[in-house]
Amino acid sequence: MRSYWRAGDPPRSLVVMVMPPDARPEEVTRGGPPEVDPFADVQAFLREVGVRVPEILAFHRDDPEGGLVVLEDLGDEMLETRLLAGDPPEPLYARAVDQLARLRARSEGTAPRCVAFARRFDRELYRWELDHFREWLLEAWKGARLSPAEREVVDREFDRIARSLEAEPPGFTHRDYQSRNIMVLPSGEQAVIDFQDALLGPRQYDLVALLRDSYVELPDDLVERMLRRWLDAFAAAGGPRLAYGPFREGFDLLTVQRKLKDAGRFVFIDRVRGNPGFLRSIPASLRYVREALARRPDLAALQEILGRHVPELAR
Length: 315
Prior knowledge:
Blueprint: E1 3-7, E2 14-19, H1 38-48, E3 56-60, E4 67-72, H2 79-84, H3 89-107, H4 123-141, H5 148-166, E5 171-173, E6 182-184, E7 190-192, E8 199-201, H6 205-211, H7 220-236, H8 244-273, H9 282-294, H10 300-309
Antiparallel strand pairs: 1-2, 2-4, 3-4, 5-8, 6-7
Helix pairs in contact: 3-7, 4-5, 4-8, 5-10, 6-8, 8-9
């Protein structure tokens, strides 16, 4: 995993990012590592379309022991820490949503020479992530085993979710656009970090990461306002005007897929990588799934089976 070190004292400090040779998520590197460095490549694209990102001051990637990147120091204030300090959430999320809508509108329908546009969420990747939940949360954590009849239904419903999400219009997707990856600068401007895993995905994906954050739970009325705000900002930035109803249905379906994956991933990180720190975020992830399933009656059969083995998902 990457590690970060601060060198020097503010305001002249720098951040050194250490990248071990295996610092590549297996989900987005099928077929081998990309020819270019994803961090530098995506950073250049985001800067070009007007997103505030840390400046790269030096880059050393040829060491077999791993790479070093020297970055501008953006400080310690994340969206999460500002919320914990008592800042009102609405202005913080409004700014994050507006930036996300502009980014999506400016990048949709384009094909720049950026690694993010050469890889995408597809049916296979969605299924891999859903099976990650089954393997690690359901089986490893809960000790459950689906019966053959249950497994048939779950596989069918997971396939249906994957196919439906694959059919959504693809565009630039940060993948982890959430409270710990949005830095709040002294001016109030928000900078984006941890973007190296970007790829093509549905319009709602980064909104799920932001508004269904495993680390910060938001009231439902704020979530709805932010979804409507994104739709307005997306249209104002040149994107098509989208209806709220179908857009919300896609948001809820992605919530089911993404937060099931997150719950399984948190167990994997504990059991395989020896880091239990994310286990505390499992309850929120499962609550998000349960709430989204309640808004998707077409997934009632899936909820009934998963709820038998994971009570947190039961109606």
